[in-house]
Amino acid sequence: MIILGIDPGYGRLGCAVLKKESKQEELLDFFCIETNPKKTYYERILEITNKIEKTINEYKPDTLAIEKVYFTNNQKTALNVSEVKGVIIYLALKNGMEIHEYTPLEIKSAVCGYGKATKEQVKKMVALLLNVKEEIKNDDTIDAIAICLTCSAQKNIPK
Amino acid sequence: MIILGIDPGYGRLGCAVLKKESKQEELLDFFCIETNPKKTYYERILEITNKIEKTINEYKPDTLAIEKVYFTNNQKTALNVSEVKGVIIYLALKNGMEIHEYTPLEIKSAVCGYGKATKEQVKKMVALLLNVKEEIKNDDTIDAIAICLTCSAQKNIPK
Question: Among A25, A29, A67, A120, which one carries the catalytic annotation?
Fold first, then answer.
């Protein structure tokens, strides 16, 4: 099972690829796509989706795990992030992938056992769970890895 | 110039294709995609986008004119409609199309000369402007045609 984890956004988008074999988890890739604010919104969408398409082609993930968009103070941002999320869902559907969506609460609960965990706590648990040596500094990337772990944990629970 | 006009939605999506040569406007196609509420949200997204892709391949529009999503009482609906809108924008970008977004106010102003026009007034003006003989009953389809007309009208104004 290969999970593509996405923390959606058009300014910064976190992406992680996690491979799971029996109970072994291996982080295949993780990065943050940061787009240039001087570019048009459409150029930024295209840049992000081209990179995600490339990642799908490279790792052939069978599952997309993506964070649900929630309302912040800026409603326009929420709508724009949803547009990006829509494109990623579409790419997943076109590639026959399963799709799972998680709220920030579900992600924090799965990774830290506590829905109100801080960013710092999530970061520490991600490093611990995956035995990552290097420090992952980017918050969006950490979130994307945490989303992969949430999906992976759910797959352990027999239905 | 061929304009693809879209009133986005996942339950019902209005679509129209308008051809413009010099000042002559010709309605090439118009329809409403209505998806089955018993299907999953993802199946509905895929059904809609497949049909839009087919329409793009058939008419080769050079311009997408799409309605902006605004906040209704139901925020979840606004987010889901934005996801569908995102996919359509992506398809337009992939096909090298220009993209224009319009608010309901801009559309009503362009078609009826009055931003608070009723659905009935928009319907009458659409029929009048395009000399459509048959009655177009579906509101989403009428909106999609009105979006095409808005884009077409803007292109008449020298910059």
Answer: A67
Residue B134 lies in a domain: yes
- Kindly report the nearest CA distance between residue B145 and chain A, in angstroms: 23
In CATH, what number is assigned to the domain containing residue B117? Answer: 3.30.420.10
Residue B114: give the domain boundaries: 2-154
Angle between helices A104-112 and A139-156 (to 10 degrees): 70
Closest to A42 (Cβ–Cβ): which among B42, B82, B89?
B89
pLDDT per residue as tens digits for the range A99-154: 999 999 999 999 999 899 999 999 999 998 888 888 888 999 999 999 999 999 98
Are A45 and B93 a contacting pair at CB < 8 A? Answer: yes
* Known catalytic membership, residue A67: yes
Asked if the Cβ–Cβ distance from B45 to A71 is below 8 Å, we say no
Confidence of residue A44 (pLDDT cuts 50, 70, 90): very high
The answer for A 48-67 residues in CB contact with B (under 8 A) is: 49
Q: Distance (Å) from the C-alpha of residue A114 to the closest C-alpha of chain B?
A: 25
Contact A78/B83, CB-based, under 8 Å? Answer: no
ipTM: 0.92
Q: How many domains does chain A divide into?
A: 1
**Within a domain: B159:** no
Measured CA to CA, the distance from residue A143 to residue A107 in angstroms comes to 8
Any domain includes B22: yes
Residue B90 in contact with partner chain A when CB distance is under 8 A: yes
Which residues in chain B come in under a pLDDT of 50?
Answer: none
Contact A83 B79 (CB under 8 A): no
Residue B127 lies in a domain: yes
